[in-house]
Amino acid sequence: MQEPEASEPEATRRVAGVAESARANRGWWDRNADEYQVEHGTFLGDDRFVWGPEGLDEVEAELLGPPEELKGAAVLEIGAGAAQCARWLAAQGARPVALDLSHRQLQHALRIGGSFPLVCADAAALPFADASFDLACSAYGALPFVADPRLVLREVRRVLRPGGRFVFSVTHPIRWAFPDEPGPEGLTVSSSYFDRTPYVEQDEEGRAVYVEHHRTVGDRVRDIVSSGFRLVDLIEPEWPAWNTAEWGGWSPLRGALVPGTAIFVCERD
Question: Which terminal residue of the chain, N or C, has fewer Cβ atoms less than 10 Å from its own Cβ?
Answer without folding.
Answer: N
